[in-house]
Design goal:
- The complex is a heterodimer of chains A (about 110) and B (about 110).
- Chain A has about 110 residues and is an all-beta fold.
- Chain A has no helices and eleven strands.
- In chain A, the strands form two sheets. In chain A, strands 2, 4, 5, 6, 9, 10 and 11 form a seven-stranded mixed sheet that branches. A four-stranded antiparallel sheet of chain A has the order 1-3-8-7, with no helix packed on it.
- Helices cover about 0% and strands about 60% of the residues of chain B.
- The N and C termini of chain B lie far apart (about 40 Å).
- Classes of the chains: A mainly beta (about 110), B mainly beta (about 110).
């Protein structure tokens, strides 16, 4: 298995809802990442988990809460989002936290906040 | 500040034609450079990865070059196909403590029949 799988592919949620994005990989990668991408812009790093520990939080608002239950899974819990949070959310993984050997990206979750 | 600049921002070519996309970077210290293809609404897919000592690397109809002295890279697409229509993103990794990636703004390529 050489893929990063993200679910759901599309999500529409209200500003008072609580939802979660899921990411899974079975390549034995020990670093996992969440990126946010607005239309026609490059991805922006949100969080980095290295060996299941949060190593980087790029000053992301607390309405986004990451979780890494084990080395294969990465979740992003969403609560009280704003319409401007609508974007493509990408998960990525790499063999180690240094990212030397390349990143594998998932197909993303298209989030719309209404 | 680490930066990656890509040109052109957008490009329209006819099917079967060749094209070259450019990437200039100021990331230091340099570790490696990747070219990704991203279809609209999908995740980026790696095309090539190049380290300091590599000048040219090919992946099918895609050929990437790297000049580490001038800090420039290019991606050449040969005999373009309609399915090549996508954004092409240059991403540079630095060897600093954070080992983070710096993304270019991408080139949006449209191949027309």
């Amino acid at each position: 298995d050489t893929e990063v799988t993200q679910t759901p592919k599309h999500l529409v949620m209200g500003m008072t809802n609580k939802k979660s994005l899921k990411c899974e990989q079975h390549m034995g990668h020990r670093a996992m990442y969440w990126y946010k991408q607005k239309a026609k812009k490059p991805p922006e790093l949100m969080f980095v988990y290295s060996y299941e520990k949060l190593s980087i939080n790029e000053s992301v608002p607390s309405r986004f809460s990451p979780e890494c239950p084990n080395s294969s899974l990465l979740n992003l819990h969403l609560h009280a989002l704003q319409p401007e949070d609508s974007a493509l959310y990408l998960c990525a993984s790499s063999p180690r936290g240094t990212g030397v050997y390349g990143y594998t990206f998932g197909s993303g979750t298209r989030l719309t906040v209404v | 500040k680490n930066q990656v600049e890509q040109s052109p921002q957008s490009l329209i070519i006819l099917e079967g034609k060749n094209c070259t996309l450019q990437c200039n970077y100021t990331v230091s210290p340099f570790s490696n450079l990747r070219w990704y293809k991203q279809d609209t609404g999908r995740g980026p897919v790696s095309l090539t990865i190049m380290t300091f000592s590599e000048n040219t690397k090919s992946n099918g109809r895609y050929t990437a070059t790297l000049d580490a002295d001038t800090k420039q890279s290019s991606l050449h697409i040969t005999a373009s196909q309609l399915s090549d229509s996508a954004s092409y993103i240059c991403v540079v990794r630095s060897n600093n403590a954070g080992n983070m990636l710096t993304f270019g703004g991408g080139t949006r390529l449209m191949v027309k029949p």
